[in-house]
Amino acid sequence: MADTIESRLEAAGVTLPQAAAPAANYVPAVTFGSILQTSGQLPMDNGALAVTGTLGANVDLEAGQRAAKLCAINILAQAKTALGGDLSRIKRLLKLTVFVASAPTFTDQHKVANGASDFMVEILGDAGRHARSAVGVPALPLGAAVEIEALLEIA
């Protein structure tokens, strides 16, 4: 089997879900030239919000990293839909912006974000190495523990 994004997803045991519909007045992704920008993705799993709460209060680091990985999976699902089903059009992940619902004393947002970053490098290879921001916020939509948006270069 050729080494493709799809084959790496399969090897990782990941099946991309159907891309989530917007929950308000926005679009899930926008393309402009060779750039694809996704809207923020929540840690959805099987159509339900999988990780809710606040890091440093009622959510531990491991659960936060799982939430970040789920967000990354949903980013790829949105990208696949936006690219007409063709993930091979992804040339490079440029940036992830990671929002972490955080207690005031929680300072490991960067470690939470690694759940998404490590997954993207695993699936996209060198094209998955990216710039990143990891930001602590008091609350996220629907009580999600993590929300992530992505900026990708596409063919």
TrEMBL record:
Domain Endoribonuclease L-PSP/chorismate mutase-like: 6-145
Entry-linked InterPro entries: Endoribo_LPSP/chorism_mut-like, RutC-like_sf
Pfam families, per the entry: YjgF_endoribonc
Residues passing through the membrane, by range: none
PANTHER family according to UniProt: ENDORIBONUCLEASE L-PSP_CHORISMATE MUTASE-LIKE DOMAIN-CONTAINING PROTEIN, ENDORIBONUCLEASE-RELATED
Name of this protein: RidA family protein
Source organism of this protein record: Jiella flava
